[in-house]
Every structure is written in structure tokens, then in C-alpha cells.
Protein: Diguanylate cyclase/phosphodiesterase
Organism: Acholeplasma brassicae
Amino acid sequence: MFKIILQTEMGSVTSTVIFVVVLGITIALLYFLAKNVLTTERRYKEERNILVEGALSRSAMNSYVSSYIAKIGKDVSFSMIYLDLDNFADIDNTFGTKETDKIIEKITKRMVDIMPKNIKVSRYDSDSFMIFVPLDYDKMQALNYARKLNEAINESIDLFGETNINLTASIALCYYPIHGNNIKSMLNSLKLAVYTVKKNGGNAIRIYSEDMSQTDGEFLEYYYQIKKAIEKKEFVLYYHPIIKLDENKIYGAEALLRWEHPEHGLLSPYKFINIMEQSGDIYWVGLWGLESLIKSYYQLKQAYPTEDIKLSFNLSPKQLMYESIATDFQKLLRKYKMNANNIILELAEYALFEKHQTVVESIKKLKHIGFNIAIDGFGLDYATLTRLETAPIDIIKLSKSFISEEQTYVTEKFANLLVEFGKNNKKVIIAEGIENDEMLQKIVNYDIHYGQGYHFAHPMSFDDLKGYYQVLKHNEKI
């Protein structure tokens, strides 16, 4: 009897062992299969980037340079050039993937055609290229080739019909082994040099130098994360409601840019907007922001067809320095058959905007298209107020400091003057930064009918905004 039981238990143990072994083998096979699929997919994406014969993929360039270094040792020198197209996200956003691929193909062909056969060209990323210049060419010759590449990029590119575009690039050079003794360290040097070009406006060539600041190096990491974030659609809009106080309903909502960072969570613009302004990606924000706002408007209108909905977002002087901004915004309006009057464009510190003629012209053009123009953060400023009567401004947003300060004869007089000015010139006055009942009562006493602030709601996701509309629609207390 004992023998039978023992054999049964041994059989059970054996079965368990076999099961565990089979399970382990299965998991291992699945792991290697998944790894193989991911590797194949990565290679496919790389190879898809190679649109012109003679251009290398990223992995092929890395292998080529690593083999070259192993062959020549550290007693000789060669050059690497890194070329990053300026504001290319705007091109992709405007023309779409298909036309963007054609543009890249034409650029790649130009680069391959002007380089000698032993200088290797690689499309290193979606909008960047790596060029390997062997030891046959000295540093001055490498610099001359960088200039030729820059000229090739600057040449106009014909698209469909009579449409053509002009591109620029930020270009960096580094030398082996003084700026890096392997492909990775050289790439880091090149990217840092490119970033310093970007933050100074792009369209220039710079040789890597050890004196490039540590701050640039810290910003560089965020810069390339931002580029990836644009591709991965990690940027989102949060909405801060603006309330029509006498009717207890939503007048509109201000869209605020946020970055859903995979490691650091939801980031406010203070963490990254300065870098985007330096690199030129800020223009992409404007185009993407307007398109996102239009889509949000239509979704809200579908849910609440009887509501008069206005959505707003901020524009910086950097964005308005682009002469094409009005034309590009108008294209988006036509694409979605959108009425510009439903969108508010907010400008901070209007007095500063007036000092740049290109900015002033852009504002006038946007106003002519039909956008509502708002001054954001307006304070106790008699000088600017006297000029607003003829300015293309529809809305004045009072700064938080105006209502948070102790009420004095001066502030009360200015508030009354401002409200009278608004009534006489058909300007909407909105008080920002309302955080409590005391601040709200001040605004009511000043006879201001629109307010915004944490007293009513914090910035929220679009889904939450739709729910907020529903709350006020049923006349529930804010």
C-alpha cells in the first residue's frame, strides 16, 4: 500500500516538474518571439525611412562608424555632421505624412547627390540626418561640406501644383576622437551643438565646443524628449472654465497646454515652454492647439447645440513673429469649416506686443479673419487703456493681482473707468484668479460680469469640461 502511494506521489511530482519545465520553455519562446517581432518592427521602421538609394539607415550608420573606429584607432581624426530640420513638425502637421515623406525623399536625394561616394549619409531620425566624413577630408573640408548641405536644404522644394516650401536646418560638426571616442559620445556632442543652434533661431552651423554650458546640456535632454512627445502625441489641453456670473453659466473655457510625461506625470508649460520657444517648436503648438480647439468645439456643440461656446488659448510673441501664422490659421478654419468668432486668442502683456511690427501685423490679420483677441493679465495700466480704444482687442482679462490687492480709491476708480470703457467700446471684461467669495464679491461690486478662477473650477480634462457644462445646465451651484 505504501509503495503504491509513494509511486503515486512520485508520479505527481514528476508531472509537476514536467509542467514547470514546459511552462518555462513556453514563456522563454514567447519572450524571444516578442523580442524578435519588436526588433523586426524597429528595423522595418528604420528601413521605411530610407527613401533614396545610397542613404543608410540609423543602425547601418552606427555599425559603419563603429567598425571604422575599430579599424583606424585613436591616432587619426575624422568628422561627423548632424543636421536637424527646423520646425519640421509644422510641415508634417500642415501637409500630412504622405507629402512629408516626399519632402524627406527630395532632401535626402539632394544630400546624397552632392556628397562624394565615400561620405555616408543617413536619415537618422524622422527629421534629422547624420553624415560621416572619413579621414580623407580635413576639418576645413568637412565644414565646407556642411555649408553645401545647408545650401541644399535652403533650396525651394516643389510640391503639388504651384505649392513650394523653403526649409532651414540646424547643423553641427564634431571631430573624432577629441569630441567623442565612440558613436554614442559623438552623437551627444552633436546634439548639444545642434540645440545651441536651435535656441538661437536655427538655420546655422556650429562646431561642438567643450565650453557649451551645463544648462544647455540639461535643456538638451528635454528638447529631444519634446520631439518624441510631439510624435507620440503626449501633449494635451486642459480647460479652465470662464463663468458668466449673472447667469451662472459657462461663457467659455481657456485651453491650457499640458505634457503627459511618461516618467514625471502631468507637466505644466513652465517646465518646457521656454525650450519650445528656443527650438521653434512653439509654432507647432499654435497649429496643433488651434486644431485641437476646433475639434473640442464641435464635440461640445454636438453635446450642447443651443449653447454659445467660446474657447480660448494663448499666443506668445514668438508665435506671432511668424508672418505665415494668419494664413496657416485660416487654412485650419477652412479645413474644418469653423467660424473664427468662436475662438479667442489671448495675448499676454500687450504693451510689449506693440513694439514688434511683425507681431502687430499678425494680430491685425488674425482679427480680420474673425478671431476674438484678448489681452491676458491686464493690470492697473492707464497708459495701455487709453490706446485700447483703437486697438484690435475684444476682451480684457484682469490679472489676479488686480483683485487680490486691498481695495483702494485708485483701484476702485480704475475699475469703474475700465467697466465704463468696456461698455462704451463693446469690450468684454473678464476677472481672472477668483479664489474665494471675497474676491467674487469685489468683482460683482465693480459690475464685472465674467470671472475665472479656482473658486469656480480648476483646469480640467475635456471629458470633465463636458460634465461641467451639464452641471451648470441644470442650474446647480458652482
In short: The first helix runs from residue 2 to 49. The two ends are 80 Å apart (CA to CA). The domain at 55-212 is CATH 3.30.70.270 (Alpha-Beta Plaits). The chain has two domains: 55-212, 230-473.
